[in-house]
Amino acid sequence: MSITYRGMNVSEPDVTTPEEIEAFFAFDDQPTGRPLASYALWADLRPDVLKRLLNYVHFIHESESWSCPLPYLNIYAVGGWPEGVRYIMGICQPSTFLSGPGYSRDAVVETLALSFYLAPSWGTVIVADAVREGLAEYREPEPGAPSPWPDGWAVAPDELKAGLDYSTPDLTKDDVRVLREWYLRVPGEVPKSIELYVRYRPQLLKAERNRWENIVRTGLPNQMFAYLLIHHEVWRGRAAGTREALLLARGLGMSKEHATDAVWYGGSFLGGTATISEVAETVEEVLDAW
Hints:
Blueprint: E1 4-5, E2 8-9, H1 18-26, H2 37-45, H3 47-63, H4 70-79, H5 82-91, H6 105-118, H7 123-126, H8 128-136, H9 173-185, H10 192-200, H11 202-213, H12 222-236, H13 239-251, H14 256-268, H15 272-288
Antiparallel strand pairs: 1-2
């Protein structure tokens, strides 16, 4: 089977013609007008290495039911890579090779709000100027443009709220009750961390939950919020976090197919098989019971 990826015959990695290189770099539907600098480097050093990556990328997206650049906006912000943040913010705008109709500015801002929740004094400090620059020139989708989200995905922030009383910093008995009820109703189980917080750091739990519940407002569907969390936790190789995110996704109505996409998307570009191995047992358990 011959596979051509953006002008390159990636089925024959050991044979690369000047015409293939020219065709690959002629695609101008990317934010910088050309592929990443790392691609240019390996096109010069060893085109076979680049071709094998592109073949891999082809199969990542070929196997996905849906593709979205927002997960990489999140981890590039968390990791503190300004160039990557600029690049993905560009890709999120209409008519680029991964965006289709494009994603709203609100969806981008709420993705970055999640990044800030995950890393308020680390990577998001480093990328703050890049974010300001990107948002200042961000192009919104056209009015009436098709939704970029899978069918059934909805922005429904109230579904993420357990009903805690934030008028007081104290975690009341009613707060504990409604929080446990929310966990049992949506993810289906109460994480051990919650019970530990209730016992030792109740006010901190309430302040944390106040942050988490108020990331989504008008831009991100609840399922995309869960998708971002799956992607992030798999990328970090955290089994407990991956379990919580998968159970949240299931409780919010995400399909097993999209959850599987999120797992492999999170492990594919930054770690491969070793990353998936870190979360394999919990992923298998949750997906088998979906």
